[in-house]
């Protein structure tokens, strides 16, 4: 993840598991918690559009997949947007926003990953 993200304090994330986080250090802590959780998450990005700018692009779409842990399976449906900019000749993610519309699914997913 560190190779994907912009390591600056300008990076931001707003997602169902981490809430609003600013700066790579805070974002990295969210990913560390997710990857250390007992369950396994698999998602794929689909139904998306790309919006290109001179040195940046925005990807807007959906993620679908599943969370598996101790016999529990949750089918995930997440609206997501990701913003990338070119830093030192490489694309780096500057922002991620994800939302789960189903309140019950959101609560079950959050409880399972904690």
Task: Quickly describe the structure.
The protein has a single domain (12-113), classed as Roll (Nuclear Transport Factor 2, Chain: A), CATH 3.10.450.50. It contains two helices and six strands; from the N terminus they run ββαββββα. It has helices spanning 24-36, 103-113; strands at 12-15, 19-22, 40-52, 56-69, 72-87, 90-99.
Fill in the keyword field for this structure.
54% strand, 114 residues, single chain, alpha+beta, 21% helix, 2 helices, globular
Provide structural commentary.
It is a single chain. The chain is α+β, with helices and mostly antiparallel strands and 114 residues long. It contains two helices and six strands. The protein has helices at 24-36, 103-113; strands spanning 12-15, 19-22, 40-52, 56-69, 72-87, 90-99. A six-stranded mixed β-sheet has the order 2-1-6-5-4-3. The protein starts with 11 loop residues before the first strand and ends with a helix.
């Amino acid at each position: 993840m560190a190779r994907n993200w912009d390591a600056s304090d300008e990076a931001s994330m707003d997602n169902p598991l981490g809430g609003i986080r600013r700066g790579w250090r805070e974002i990295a802590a969210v990913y560390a918690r997710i990857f250390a959780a007992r369950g396994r998450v698999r998602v794929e990005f689909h139904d998306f559009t790309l919006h290109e700018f001179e040195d940046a692009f925005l990807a807007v779409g959906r993620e679908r997949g599943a969370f598996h842990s101790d016999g529990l399976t949750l089918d995930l449906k997440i609206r997501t947007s990701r913003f990338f900019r070119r830093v030192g000749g490489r694309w780096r993610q500057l922002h991620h926003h994800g939302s789960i519309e189903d309140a019950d699914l959101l609560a079950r997913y959050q409880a399972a990953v904690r």
